[in-house]
Amino acid sequence: MPDDWLRGLWPLFSPLRRAKPQTAHQISLVLKTKGIALTNRATATVFLNTERRIGEISPLIFGGLAEHMGRCIYEGIYDPASPLADKRGFRSDVLKALKDINYRILRYPGGNFVSGHRWQDGTGPRSERPRRRDLAWRSVETNQFGLHEFMEFAQELGALPMWAVNLGTGSIQDAADLVEYLNLPVGTSFSDLRAKNGQKKPYGVQYFCLGNEMDGPWQLGHLDAVGYADKAREAAKLMKLMDPEIKLVACGSSNTDIATYPEWDRTVLERMGDEIEYFSMHAYAGNRTDDTDSFLASSLHFEDHANTIAAAIRIAKAKNRSKHDVYLSWDEWNVWYKTEGDDGNWQEAPHLIEEVFNLEDALVVAQWLSTFLRKADIIKIACIAQIVNVIAPIMTKEDALFKQTTFYPLMLFSNHAAGHSLDLLVQAPVHDTKMYGGAAQLDASASFDPETGRGALFLVNRSQTQSLDVTLKWEDVAPEGFTQGWQMSGHDPKAHNSFEQPDEVTAHEIELPALEGPQTTLSLPPLSFTVLLSRHAPA
Ligand code: AHR
C-alpha cells in the first residue's frame, strides 16, 4: 500500500492521535493497536518441485546446548529439591518438554564453561566431587551433575552426545584421556575407571568439539588462529588415535563482528581442515535498535554468514589440494540481546541471561531453522543455545515451567522437517530494511521425504502490517492433500509468555486449505509463522 494513500487517511483517525506517525507502517501499527484493521494484503507465489532438492536434511540440525551456566543444568535439567524431580533428580516436566522438541544431539558441557572444565570432576561418588570456582561465569560449580548423569540424560532424550573438550586450560592429553574414558573397552586406566564408576560398556560417543570459541579474548586460555589450529590438530591426532571412529568439530569464529572474522576461519581450515569432519559457527541475533523490520529480515544475515564459511571451507580445500569434505556445525545459535551478564557473583546456579522471548524473536528463530533447511547441503549439525533457562525455549521455577514463544517453531521444525530440503522458487514483494536492504516479505523453506511421501512447508510473513496471500504451486506432482497445519501470529511483536500467562503466544492448528489442481492459496497474517504438512502418494 503506498505511503501517501495511507497518510491521506490519517486525519480521519485524528482522535486516536498522540504523536503523529510518519510512515504508513507506523500508522498501520497505531490503528492495529486500536483494533482497526485495514485491508492491506499482498500476494506471493511459491513454486515447489519435489525433484528439485538442495540436500538431505540431517536430523542433527535439531540439537541443543546444555551448558553448566546459570540455571541450565542446576534448577533446569537437574533439580533434586523440586517436587517434579524423578528419582535421579531430573526434572520430569523438563524431560517431557525436551522430548516434545525432539532434540537429536546435545552439546555439553559448554560453551565458555568448558574452557576451564576438568572432566574428571564430574565422575565418581557425588560426595567426593570437588566444588570449584567456574571462572567463565564467575559461579560455583558443585559437580553434582557430571559426565555419567549427562550421558543418562541424553540417552533418556534419545539425543546423541556432543562432547566439547577443554582446549583452553586443558591439555591435548586431557582430551585424549576423555576419549579413553568414554569410548574404550575396559582394560586401560581410564576405561577401567569408567567401569568402576558404574559404566562397564563404552559409551561410544561419536561427536567431539575441539574447544569452544577459542577466537574470543574472553575465552579462558584464548589462542590466536595459528596457536589454536596447531593445538586442535594435535588434540585431534591423539583423540583419533584413541578412537578412530570419532568425528571432530573445530572452532570457527564466535561471531561475525569480531575483528578476526573470517580470517580466523580461513587460517584454521587451512592449517587443520583435513583432520576434522565439521567446522563450527556461532551467532546470536538481536533487535538491539528496536528496528523490527530489519530484525525480521535476519535470515539474510544468517545465509550470508553460512555462505562465507562455506566459501572458506572450499578455499582451504582447494589450497590444500584436498579431497576431504568438511561440513558446518552451527552449534550455537539463537536470539539473545535483552539480557547481559557473565557475573554469577560466585553463587551456585545464579540467574544468568534468562531472556524472555517474544513473537518477533520466534519469527527469527523460524527463519534460522529455515536457513538450516535452505543450506541442508552444507549444514549438518546445529544446536540452539541453550536448552533450559539460559536463553532457552523452556523456563523453570521450582514447581513449574513455561514454554517460550521460541519453543513452537523449534518443535514444529524438529518434528516435521525430514527427508530432503526442496529448492523453492519464491516470488514475493520486496521491502527495504535499514540493516539488510531489500528483503522478500516471505521467508520460506520446505522438506519432502520420498520414502514416506510427507512434505512440510515453513512460511514466515515478515510484514508487521500486511497479510500475504500465498499461492503454492507444485510443478511436478501435487500432493494428495494436506494433513495438518499450525500458525503463530499476533498484533504485538513484543507479546510473550510467562508463568502467569503461559499461552499468550503459541502455535495453534489451522483449517487446511483445499487443493485446486496442483495449487492452493494460503493466507498468512502479518507477523506470522505457518507450517503446512502435505501427503504425497507413495512413489
Ligand atoms: O550460550 C552462552 C555463551 O555464548 C556460550 O557459553 C558461549 O560459547 C557463547 O559466547
Automatic annotation (TrEMBL):
<dbReference type="InterPro" id="IPR017853">
    <property type="entry name" value="GH"/>
</dbReference>
<comment type="subunit">
    <text>Homohexamer; trimer of dimers.</text>
</comment>
<dbReference type="Pfam" id="PF22848">
    <property type="entry name" value="ASD1_dom"/>
</dbReference>
<keyword id="KW-0119">Carbohydrate metabolism</keyword>
<dbReference type="InterPro" id="IPR055235">
    <property type="entry name" value="ASD1_cat"/>
</dbReference>
<dbReference type="GO" id="GO:0046556">
    <property type="term" value="F:alpha-L-arabinofuranosidase activity"/>
</dbReference>
<keyword id="KW-0378">Hydrolase</keyword>
<keyword id="KW-0326">Glycosidase</keyword>
<dbReference type="GO" id="GO:0046373">
    <property type="term" value="P:L-arabinose metabolic process"/>
</dbReference>
<protein>
    <recommendedName>
        <fullName>non-reducing end alpha-L-arabinofuranosidase</fullName>
        <ecNumber>3.2.1.55</ecNumber>
    </recommendedName>
</protein>
<comment type="similarity">
    <text>Belongs to the glycosyl hydrolase 51 family.</text>
</comment>
<keyword id="KW-0614">Plasmid</keyword>
<dbReference type="GO" id="GO:0000272">
    <property type="term" value="P:polysaccharide catabolic process"/>
</dbReference>
<feature type="domain" description="Alpha-L-arabinofuranosidase C-terminal">
    <location>
        <begin position="331"/>
        <end position="528"/>
    </location>
</feature>
<dbReference type="InterPro" id="IPR010720">
    <property type="entry name" value="Alpha-L-AF_C"/>
</dbReference>
<dbReference type="InterPro" id="IPR013780">
    <property type="entry name" value="Glyco_hydro_b"/>
</dbReference>
<dbReference type="Pfam" id="PF06964">
    <property type="entry name" value="Alpha-L-AF_C"/>
</dbReference>
